[in-house]
């Protein structure tokens, strides 16, 4: 017998012109006019820890006990590496990492590429491939790099390997990040967290690192 959920009628595709169809998505493939990324002269030296952009960040903040506590390091190009150890609080299925958590690991590692170019950017599109299940206690070895830049669009890619830095790829992502100014956060964040961030000298110093972008 077919399971009950198969009895549901299929959802009809949204009709063009119904108002449900969104604008065309930006391709994840850079356009021909895109240029190679440039490593900022003040970027962290290869191998240097990058540190969190915000200690409450779910991806890399040390102040988030259930977060991923990602620790990224600069590569020698416009690239980074990071590790994430899957903990029980990150499960989706029994004993396995939740796919959204793995997407967060990829997203946050890509976000730390900001420090290599000294440009603030946020995720516009993130397309993930889940190739192997990732058990609890696994160390996910991440690497991410910027492949091209076109205007405010930053094209980048990330992989997460298991069993060691050269192990098989378990997850990967292609993404387009969009450059923004600090005002993006100041204008959109909840006032109490923004106020707290602006009165934290460490946070202000981290934000100021992006202000000079020759
Ligand atoms: C002292 C206090 C301050 C605190 C400071 C903290 C320090 C911060 C430091 C570092 C932060 C790093 C954080 C990393 C965390 C990990 C990464 C994340 O999870 S980020 C969160 C998830 N993402 C979002 O929440 C974005 C939400 N979306 C938006 O806000 C907007 O849609 C935004 C900014 C992405 C674009 O809006 P528009 O109005 O500025 O952009 P338009 O002018 O329409 O487009 C510009 C170009 O970008 C393309 N574009 C726009 N949106 C796109 C999209 N979603 N996907 C692909 N392309 C897109 C467009 O096609 C256009 O391209 P054409 O110039 O025409 O070629």
From TrEMBL:
EC number assigned by the record: 3.1.2.2
Keywords: Apoptosis, Cell membrane, Cell projection, Cytoplasm, Fatty acid metabolism, Hydrolase, Lipid metabolism, Membrane, Transit peptide
Family as reported in the entry's similarity comment: Belongs to the THEM4/THEM5 thioesterase family.
InterPro entries: HotDog_dom_sf, THEM4/THEM5_acyl-CoA_thioest, Thioestr_dom
Record has Lipid metabolism as a keyword: yes
Record domain Thioesterase: where: 95-163
Keyword ATP-binding found: no
Catalytic activity: decanoyl-CoA + H2O = decanoate + CoA + H(+); (9Z)-octadecenoyl-CoA + H2O = (9Z)-octadecenoate + CoA + H(+); octanoyl-CoA + H2O = octanoate + CoA + H(+); hexadecanoyl-CoA + H2O = hexadecanoate + CoA + H(+)
Protein name: Acyl-coenzyme A thioesterase THEM4
Membrane topology: Peripheral membrane protein
A GO term, aspect molecular function: hydrolase activity
GO BP: any one term: fatty acid metabolic process
Top-level taxon of the source organism: Bacteria
Chief place of localization: membrane
CC annotations in GO: cytoplasm; membrane
Gene3D superfamilies: Hotdog Thioesterase
Localization terms from the record: Cell projection, Ruffle membrane; Cytoplasm; Membrane
